[in-house]
Design goal:
This protein is 54% helix and 10% strand. By secondary structure, the chain is α/β, with parallel strands linked by helices. The protein has two domains: 92 residues; 155 residues, Rossmann fold, CATH 3.40.50. The strands form two sheets. A four-stranded parallel beta sheet has the order 2-1-3-4, sandwiched between helices. The chain has a two-stranded antiparallel ribbon with strand order 5-6. A hairpin with a 5-residue loop joins β5 and β6.
Length: 315
């Protein structure tokens, strides 16, 4: 039945073309060529899908592959341009997405192709190696569109948005858990190229006071993780908050843990803070989200609020 319909359709097309004038037929011929070229161009510009990227990410994480080893052989300038994330999960996704957006660097190499070759050689099992081998074939079959033969990615069209993360050291584990998930959402932003900075990136021997103040000065926004410990930390009260509340930055307070401390003296009483609304109308801090579903909901809604606020203020 399907073949009969196809034959009927082909006869209809032939009959229609026969009825055209010579000029019309030439136009149709040119139109067909244009359509074919467009289809081929579209096919060549697909790159790896997000499903492919996440599969590669999961495999590399499960295999425990070292980031430096994976980036070996890729232009140092390009590697240095990759945004820094705080968790291996978020960092790996950032690296993969940025490499997937580049066809060719100025030295003629494809960073994702090198990365996948490294991953294949570093893999300890055939199953892992096969994932990277399949991705290499997919990358060869569907190279990404060339962008000026340079180290340009889709982030060139995004708004650079450095964010300072202010929190109490006592809350570090909870903050890292939240930020690890939040940065995955940041990576998917169509508008902003987020760069979340916190003091955990300060290297041994560096002047931590200078690094923190420089990061605050360079930031366009600040996420404040509110908790009892946050309001009792002297450095936050005397150094971080006065600089963050200078009127030049977007302030994003987040209820990390419940607290009862009066905040007016710290200058935060004027800001609406984020907390998650439950089904019964109550508000929850992140620490009160006991299930993974509630934590995911908290982070998802927080990201939506941050994106909307920044689009209003900066975008």
């Amino acid at each position: 039945m399907q073949k009969q319909l196809q034959r009927n359709m082909n006869r209809s097309i032939i009959l229609s073309v026969e009825l055209l004038s010579v000029t019309d037929a030439v136009c149709v011929h040119h139109l067909c060529l244009v359509v074919i070229l467009m289809l081929k161009e579209n096919e060549m510009g697909q790159g790896l899908t997000q499903e492919d990227i996440h599969k590669i990410q999961r495999t590399a994480l499960e295999a425990g592959l070292d980031r430096n080893a994976l980036l070996s052989g890729i232009s140092r300038g390009f590697v240095g341009s990759l945004p820094t994330q705080s968790t291996p999960n978020a960092q790996l996704l950032t690296d993969l997405n940025h490499m997937n957006d580049v066809d060719e660097l100025t030295d003629g190499t494809n960073p994702l192709q090198i990365w996948l070759q490294n991953a294949k050689h570093l893999s300890s099992s055939r199953k892992e190696s096969q994932v990277f081998e399949e991705s290499l074939r997919g990358l060869t079959n569907h190279p990404t569109p060339q962008r000026n033969n340079a180290m340009h990615t889709e982030t060139d069209t995004k708004i650079d948005l450095p964010i300072f993360i202010s929190y109490a050291r006592k809350d570090k584990t909870l903050v890292e858990n939240l930020m690890g998930e939040l940065e995955v959402h940041f990576e998917g932003s169509k508008t902003f190229d987020f760069g979340a900075w916190r003091d955990s990136v300060i290297l041994v021997g560096e002047g931590w006071d200078k690094e923190i103040k420089d990061a605050i000065n360079a930031s366009k926004a600040g996420i404040l993780f509110l908790s009892p410990a946050f309001f009792t930390r002297k450095y936050i009260k005397e150094e971080e908050l006065p600089r963050l509340l200078d009127g030049q930055k977007v302030i994003l307070p987040v209820l990390l843990k419940p607290y009862t401390i009066h905040t007016e003296t710290l200058g935060l009483h004027q800001f609406q803070y984020f907390s998650m609304e439950t089904d019964n109308g109550k508000r929850k801090a992140f620490s009160e989200c006991s299930s993974s579903q509630h934590k995911e909901k908290f982070v998802r809604e927080l990201y939506d609020q941050i994106e909307r606020r920044l689009q209003k203020e900066v975008g």
